[in-house]
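In line with agreed milestones, the collection of sequences with tokenised folds has grown. One record among many is set out beneath this paragraph:
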Amino acid sequence: MSRRVLLWVSGIDRLRLEQTRTNKILRNSLPEEMVAKVLEGKLTADYYQQASVLFCDIYDFKAISSDLPASSLVSMMNNIFSRFDALIDHYQCIKVETIGEVYMAASGLPQVADWHAENLCYLALDMQKALSGFRAPPAAAKPSDNASASGAGMLVVDQKSGSGAADEARTLGKRIQLRIGINSGETIAGVIGLKLPRYRLLYVF
């Protein structure tokens, strides 16, 4: 086989590898039903008569984040959102986006689901369970501290003591509490953008 043919075959293999990587990234970023449309350059929006949307944020996030260095904060949020991501596939739900400490999910779109509100209710309960006993890293944590307090947040067994909430938060880290809301109704959703395309809700209820 000539050198030119070998280079051509090698180029085809690299192209296929890049296509596989691109498809994998899209499938991790968009609902499966939208991937083919994006690859074909079709950016469309669809109307859904009935769907549900879940909004989840961290209570008192400003106070929690102000006590942490940037690396610890990012590590903690990655820990929390990764737990939520792992729950999404258990129900007919999709992750829509995250904005700051807010996690947004939906059900009933792009795949129609009759039990969209119930799906998100079960998801909300599991999100609470996933963070049961979860605390932010202690505000005084340093890079040399042990791994459980290095920034990813931790699970601890609550113990009663007379030291008070302030001492407890300083030694164990502040408790992470969630606020979750769900709304149902009509919406319009579609993929927006050619660079870093995202599945967006354009109109909610």
